[in-house]
Design a protein that fits this description.
The protein is an alpha/beta fold. The chain is built from nine helices and eight strands. It is globular, with a radius of gyration of 27 Å. The relative contact order is 0.15.
């Protein structure tokens, strides 16, 4: 009432855990507490917003990069391309800036049945940024499509063949950039969804797997990571010079210059 009288808009929120519902018994909750993990119980029954184990990009890092609007500042352009055809999408991420501060200018994903159509559309985006550095996924069929893009553009485009090691290095670079809030992007719902569902797991062979959670996509994340890896280091910081230091030379004794026969 006080806010309404003052002409201000108030925001009200309330958390409602499951035990407040008359349709959920305490016995059921006690059983569920024993069956599921502590984290899962917090999310499902305590109405808590908790990042799940294995989540690569935490919510705080994602939210710290979101800005209402991204404005072009005339910096260097880096473009990442992730190829997909049937179940997956082809995604293109256009970044401006360097590793000290970058901005996501354009993010596109689309699905086509024919490779020439996809290559042509990606080429159209790249041509809007004549001096851009471009890096595409060269794994599997991506190597062939990259050759098609070379012919379309009339010049070679860099490619990266994914291995467990190279992909881990690629994602780690994006993770560091986001955690330090050196990247800005507009609130794109699909990008945010993919970042929150990108997870790390361990295979039966003991290898670290980085991919989208089952039933979701990661093409935007991969394109963003590819573009991020091309960002230049940025201007070097100032070098502070002090006064010249003079170190006294120690005097050598004659016996120090002699070598023992033994």
């Amino acid at each position: 009432p006080a806010l309404r009288e003052a002409g201000e808009h108030g925001v009200w929120s309330r958390t409602a855990p499951s035990w407040e519902s008359p349709y959920v018994s305490q016995g059921f909750l006690d059983i569920q507490r024993e069956l599921v993990s502590h984290r899962a119980f917090e999310v499902e029954y305590e109405a808590k917003f908790v990042d799940w184990a294995g989540m690569v990009f935490d919510s705080e890092s994602i939210e710290g990069c979101i800005v209402p609007r991204v404005e072009i500042q005339g910096g260097p352009i880096s473009i990442g391309v992730d190829w997909g055809r049937y179940e997956d999408f082809t995604a293109v991420a256009v970044l401006e800036g360097d590793r000290t501060q970058s901005r996501l200018l354009e993010l596109v994903q689309f699905r086509r049945n024919k490779w020439p159509e996809m290559v042509s559309r990606v080429a159209q985006i790249i041509r809007r940024y004549p001096h851009a550095e471009v890096l595409g996924d060269g794994t599997g069929v991506g190597d062939v499509v990259a050759d098609m893009l070379d012919m379309e553009m009339g010049k070679p485009v860099k490619v990266l063949k994914f291995t467990n090691e190279s992909k881990q290095h690629l994602i780690e670079g994006l993770k560091i950039c986001m955690e330090s809030q050196r990247m800005q992007f507009a609130p794109d719902p699909e990008l945010i969804r993919q970042l929150k569902h990108f997870e790390s797991s361990v295979s039966s062979a003991g290898n670290t797997l980085l991919a989208a959670r089952s039933g979701t996509h990661d093409d935007l994340v991969i394109a963003l990571a590819l573009g991020c890896s091309l960002l230049p280091k940025g201007p070097a910081g100032p070098v502070l010079l002090g006064e010249t230091r003079v170190f006294a030379k120690p005097r050598l004794k004659f016996e120090d210059l002699c070598f023992s026969a033994n």
